[in-house]
Prior knowledge:
The chain folds into 2 domains: 13-123 and 291-302, Rossmann fold (3-Layer(aba) Sandwich), CATH 3.40.50.1370; 126-287, Aspartate/ornithine carbamoyltransferase (Rossmann fold). Helix content is 37%, strand content 15%. The chain has helices spanning 13-24, 46-58, 68-71, 79-87, 101-109, 126-140, 161-171, 210-214, 234-241, 248-251, 274-277, 284-302, and strands spanning 36-41, 62-67, 92-96, 115-120, 152-156, 176-180, 203-207, 219-222, 259-262. The strands form 2 sheets. The chain has a 5-stranded parallel beta sheet. Strands 2-1-3-4 form a 4-stranded parallel beta sheet.
Amino acid sequence: MTRHLLTIEALSDEDLAELYALARSPFDDELLKGQGVALVFERPSLRTRASSAAAVAELGGFATFFGDDEIGLDTRESAEDVARTLNETFAIAAMRLRRHEVFHRMRVATRDELSLVNLLSSDAHPTQALADVLTLADEFSDGDVYGMAGLRVAYVGDATNVTRSLAVALTRLGVHVRVGAPYQYQLKESGAENPFAGGERGSLELFDSAEAAVEGVDAVYTDAWVSMGFESEAAQRRLDLAAFRVDDRLLANASSHAIVMHCLPAHRGDEIVSEVLDSPRSRVWRQVFHRRSAMRAALRWIKGDA
């Protein structure tokens, strides 16, 4: 059966356990020997491209990058024809897409033969969530993701696809997630990655105050206020979200041992200040390290390397 990694929600507990184990276990660097992975990026990303290319090489495969200008999904060529073309050459396609529904269309077009990895979509960012879980486990439970039950993690600012996947992943591990955002930027119950779906072991609470969200938490997470595609709203977003900036004033409400996380790129002075991003509390570079761990695990899981 062809495996896909499209959302955290779609993965079983057994799948997630295997992914976390694969991220930390020794690996065979011949697993992808002679096999290619297509990296299709409608949206640019330094960390996603670097971690994906490195992970493919570590497993003995080769990665080929296709930017938006070359592919032109549904402009230059239909998403279905792109998928059929890639299926003739590559074993796996890892993609950053504007529209999550394109993954379904590609699965149908290739009769579910081409394994797909979601490197970011409108609904979800599962590989980032896997990396964030690994980062938190390093900090609080000696690397054991199942030792984090009861941990308190706050996300503040614009609740994005990153927030959705993070909340699903953490609540399934028994972590208490608190999201602080103005109403219009808060999590909504929709999309393929639904943190309100139920069945979680932890909890999810929503706040309209950053201070209330971070009160006593063990980790504070934020992301860019002006994500790709929202540049025209930049001035209004900065006004709406100014009270959700991660700075020393806000962190005074968290636990004294609280760490700070950001999936990058950071807009210093907007969602986070340099004094915090570059401080000893910051774990952003450990998150970057684990982006490769997460991608390597995703590729191994797809190939059934248990």
